[in-house]
Write a structure and sequence with these properties.
Radius of gyration: 20 Å
Distance between the termini: 30 Å
Strand content: 15-25%
Number of domains: 2
Largest sheet: 4 strands, antiparallel
Oligomer: single chain
Shape: globular
CATH class of the largest domain: Mainly Alpha
Strand order of the largest sheet: 1-6-7-5
Structural class: alpha+beta
CATH topology of the largest domain: Helicase, Ruva Protein, domain 3
Low-confidence stretches: none
Helix content: 10-25%
Mean pLDDT: 93
Length: 283
DNA sequence: ACTACGTCCTGCTTGC
DNA sequence: TGCAAGCAGGACGTAG
């Protein structure tokens, strides 16, 4: 569920409450949380203990905290949270990794019910971790290149939503914001990515930026307690969703009932009137 | 090389 | 009522 806006909210919280502080202790409670750290648990702990957090950066749904030349890289997965709170508070059941700081203030807890998220230390990863070299820039970055994306989409023999969810083409978009963006520009999720005119790609990415910006203003989308900011507070953009999770409800634009289709082992929500299905799967 | 699908994981919801 | 199946889904490995 955390997509770009939710991860950005977390990044801002880390920027405010963690940057500039020196890590005192690192405790790993669940090995799966650092499964992608190549050096193992002892190495993970050793590389972070005593280091000062220099910044909080983000690309798409990944965020990283530069510590000297290295970086602590984080992906929240489905249910990951980075929580800043009283160091003496009892550990909740799903705390996977805990960081304390030299100043004795609030600690940082990586909490993750479904354990799809992970942390790792990226050597020399302060600028851009090598582990995410394949992740394309997100549409809120200065280096985002619309012309490059347009060219890549032209050779893609797949539906536009699959392409939108492919983080090597454009990052930060997940199932919720993909459906919301496609609804805004009246595109069906199965429209051939290679059949879109450049103007349509530009319009779609404009809608993505629009939805991201509005969601950021609302503090992100929270359906339940699984997404919260670093202080444990929920966002309320779910109230502004037009189609996602609204099967059977009227389309806010035309009144036709929203539909839900099975899609990639998940769901696609769309208005069957505003977003016409391609006749032969490619249109 | 490119695309599609299964897998990981837990807890809440739905249905028989 | 109770249990089982369904559902949520990001990213990666593998199959085709």
């Amino acid at each position: 569920m955390p997509e770009l806006p939710e991860v950005e909210i977390v990044r801002r919280g880390l920027d405010q409450f963690v940057v500039g502080r020196r890590i005192h202790t690192v405790e790993v409670f669940h090995p799966r949380a650092i499964r992608r750290h190549v050096g193992g648990q002892a190495d993970f702990i050793a590389r972070l203990t005593g280091q000062t957090v220099d910044a909080a950066r983000r690309r798409g749904k990944y965020l990283w905290l530069p510590v000297g030349e290295d970086a602590l890289l984080a992906h929240l997965g489905m249910s990951g949270q980075l929580l800043v709170g009283p160091a003496d508070a009892p550990l909740s059941p799903h705390v996977r990794v805990r960081f304390t700081f030299d100043d004795g203030g609030a600690d940082l807890r990586f909490t993750d019910q479904r354990t799809f998220g992970h942390l790792l230390v990226s050597p020399d990863g302060a600028q851009l971790p090598a582990e995410i070299a394949h992740i394309a820039p997100d549409p809120l970055e200065d280096v985002f290149d619309l012309a490059w994306l347009t060219a890549r989409l032209r050779t893609r023999r797949t539906g536009i939503k699959r392409a939108l969810l492919d983080q090597s083409l454009v990052s930060g978009v997940g199932n919720i914001y993909a459906d919301e963006s496609l609804w805004r520009v009246k595109l069906h999720y199965a429209r051939g990515a290679d059949r879109l005119r450049p103007g349509q790609v530009a319009g779609l990415m404009g809608a993505v930026v629009e939805v991201f910006t509005e969601a950021l203003k609302d503090g992100g989308t929270s359906f339940d307690s699984l997404y919260v900011n670093v202080n444990g507070e929920s966002g309320y953009f779910d109230r502004s969703l037009n189609v996602y999770g609204r099967a059977g409800e009227p389309c806010p634009r035309c009144g036709t009932l929203i539909r839900r289709d099975p899609f990639m082992n998940r769901s696609s929500y769309y208005c069957p009137f505003c977003q016409r299905r391609p006749r032969n799967g490619r249109w």
